[in-house]
Amino acid sequence: MAQTEDKNIFAWMDRLNQKDLDGVEEIDPYEGEEVDEAAWQRIRKRTFARLDFDEEAVGQLKEAKPYKKASRRKWLAAACAAVILSTTFISVSPDARAELKKVLQFIPGFGFVQQNEDSEQRAYVLPKPEDSIGEYGKITVEGVLIQRSGGQISLGGDNVSATAVKSLILVTEQGQFEFKQSNALWGGGGPWQAMYYYEGSIPYKGLENATLRFGNTTIGPLHLTKAETADDLAGFGSSDIRNGIRITGIVTPLDVNIRKVNLLTQLSGQQMVDSHGKEPIAEGLQLQLTDNQGRALSIKKDTGFIKPRELLFDDPTGADNYQLVIPAIRIVDPGVKHVKVTLPVPEEGTREIRVSSQIAGFPVEFTRIERVSAESVRIEVDTHFDYDQQRTLQNYRLFTKDGVSMSYTSKQNERTLAVETEWLSVEPGQKEISFYIGEPHIVVKGPWILSDLQ
Fold first, then answer.
1. Looking at the chain, which terminus has fewer C-beta neighbours within 10 angstroms, N or C?
2. What is the mean pLDDT of residues 197-208?
């Protein structure tokens, strides 16, 4: 356990600017207090608490570099001192303290937060989407991210033929840089989205008036700016914590009346938010947005692609701030180990069964199986969904033993939206069926109240 905690500490310390910490380790506590090993542990806890970070999440941001044991202790003293300078033990200027805590930056358009390793090397981003009309219809530059190590650009539009353009050119004062298409998605003959990437260094100078050349269409100028930084997620906007999960809302004005809210959530491992309740997660579990006068605002429905971590809404009155109430969220956890389930298959008709399993600690019970035809069975299942629980299982996905997603059909309960029936394929004469359940869909109870979105 101690080794794991140390790794998280030193991984965090690796992201600090060592020049900013020079000499800090020489500051002694007042009253000549001796700091023993137990005290260092208390300081470590206080360090992460003051930064409002989750130790485990911080440890996952970057792999620690090798340090000699002696220098580690010196850095531990420096790092801990740097972030508890406002305690009764140590003091330093507020400006220095603020600089030491600049470790996160928000990437608009992509809707995520990343580590900022060096305040002088902050990423350049597109603050809000940019639209253009050309030979491929409407094209929206959703996001631009330029870093010393390369760049990413996200595009979308309403004419799927645009996905045939496999590269685009970023034009800056320093030259032209070709971004290649990494993936593209589309639905029918209409909406599409594509990602483009560049490997190599792009000079930051001149990005303020960059343009994009997409086929014969020029988009821009794109007024790229340095990414916003904050001490922690709460520093980016209105924030709330429930059940150990922090949700932060960042508002971006898109035009006179339209606003976009990016919802950032701190989760561990591979967990991701599948829904914040833009559409009901279950009966009665849907988010509510109001302006500063308490008037309800309607959230625009997604068109083309579902964006669960993004809200668009109209505000014709131009309110100063908003309140968002999120009664529950749904989390999907791809990191959970798949669990094998084997069920008997009747030759014909229905058989009552009681096959119990569990995933991520949640019970799952298969109660009945019916051979619908020679090549199909219907299975009834109970996930024990419970509105009163802080966390409850709503659904999961089915996989083969090789981890490949299976082809199957499901039916959900009308009120809870929990899975209750599944149809799977079988072979004629097959006497049992095996599959694996994984990627649990877990509903986490709130409410999260973001009371000062602006």
1. N
2. 88
